[in-house]
Amino acid sequence: MRPLADQADLTSIRQDALSLFKAGIAAADPYQAVKHHLVPELFDNFSKVHLIAFGKAACTMAKAAAEIIPATRLAGRGLAVTNYENVMAIDNVDVIGAGHPLPDAAGLNAAQTLAERLDNAKVDELVLVLVSGGGSALIPYPAGQITLPEKIATTDLLLACGATINQINCVRKHLSRLKGGGLARIAAPAHVHALILSDVLGDDLSVIASGPTVADDSTYADAVDVFQSRGIWQQVPANVRAHLEQGERGRIAETPKPGDAIFKNTGQSLIGSNRLSVNAMLHAAAQLGYETHLHSDHLCGEASEEAEKWVLYAKTLSVNTPIALLAGGETTVTLKGNGRGGRNQEMALAFALAAEHHGLTGTWTFLSGGTDGRDGPTDAAGGIVDRNTIKRMTQAGVNPRALLENNDSYTALKTANDLVTTGATGTNVADLQIVLIRPEL
């Protein structure tokens, strides 16, 4: 490895990566998205409007909506449920902080309050639902005899085994009274319209926040298969297993399916997504003078494996001019150790190790970050690494390979001063990744 040199160039390229990441986050501004899509005329045909918001962007979305909806049309105070970091005061809106990524008692109370309000909605009224990423965990309302601790344990199992977001949401829908079209069922016969900020690749509306206003194609049998295919069925709490088995046998009603009459007066509008943020990064990179390439708009798979694949791809490039390789997605991590970190930090550490191992040349930096500002159970949004990252770690006396194997990317990156810390951003459109490479000087 070359000595710690070209520090000015490294600092410059890292600053460029951070500016691109910020451009991607700005493109997912939920306040502006609601302002752009919501017009006062929408409310002319309804006697009252029930304002409901949940997700990491709930407060900014609710604030924008409350400024547009005529005060005389509001059916009482609105309700916004968000993670604790994003709580803010909003005129005419009750704001409730709740747990994420693991649900908590505050979220359960919020979900019950939400259901009670919607149960009173009338046929000539509109339920305006503002949905953003994180909504699945923030409004837990367990079905049947399932308790909140049992649902939390089940969610913990899914997160630890590396289940995909689609698999996690399939299970959540069949353990909940609100998800998988449950909210629309409770609100019927009122009209329902959802403005949705997508944190899901491909923007499948039935998956975002587990599709509370959308018909559900998945079944109890699909939910059971998620656990069985991962070999963790026997670790699932007994009450949860019993509920899913009863549903699989047809003894519990399925989630509402396409064509159900409850969706006659239900609609949705997609107002923001990961792809829009990736496009914003592509534009910003070109403005900075980089030759831009879309590496992937659907980056998924095991974080450490995808990082190594990206390094190997970067090595095939002929770098004669500054290059930006940009991606959006949501990788997974299968926990094998007991360290701290999230998928973005793990990917950044794995990229640095792979770049060192395979000899990636040029002046480069790699950033992977969550647009919500929080990566896993840490205070970081992700990580940013460069050609000197591994040297900084070893000189500080840590073993980056051992830390990666213990899923302790947070400790490794913190040691090298390579954490990306933004604080809560108020939005959530999955993750963004950036590789910048400049020719050797």
Structural account:
With 441 residues, the chain is α/β, with parallel strands linked by helices. The protein has 2 domains: 7-27 and 275-438, glycerate kinase, domain 1 (3-Layer(aba) Sandwich); 30-141 and 176-218 and 255-272, Glycerate kinase, MOFRL-like N-terminal domain (Rossmann fold), CATH 3.40.50.10180. It is 39% helix and 17% strand. The chain contains 16 helices and 12 strands. Strands 3-2-1-4-5-6 form a 6-stranded parallel beta sheet, sandwiched between helices. Strands 7-8-12-9-10-11 form a 6-stranded mixed beta sheet, with helices on both faces. Helix 12 links the parallel strand 7 (291-299) and strand 8 (323-329). It is globular. 53% of the residues are buried.
Which secondary structure elements does this structure contain, and how are they paired or packed?
Layout: H1 7-26, H2 30-37, E1 49-54, H3 58-68, E2 78-83, E3 93-98, H4 105-119, E4 126-131, H5 135-138, H6 148-160, H7 165-173, H8 182-187, E5 191-197, H9 220-229, H10 238-248, E6 266-272, H11 274-287, E7 291-299, H12 303-315, E8 323-329, H13 343-358, E9 363-370, E10 382-386, H14 389-395, H15 400-405, H16 409-415, E11 419-420, E12 431-438
Parallel strand pairs: 1-2, 1-4, 2-3, 4-5, 5-6, 7-8
Antiparallel strand pairs: 8-12, 9-10, 9-12, 10-11
Helix pairs in contact: 1-11, 2-3, 7-9, 9-10, 12-13, 13-16
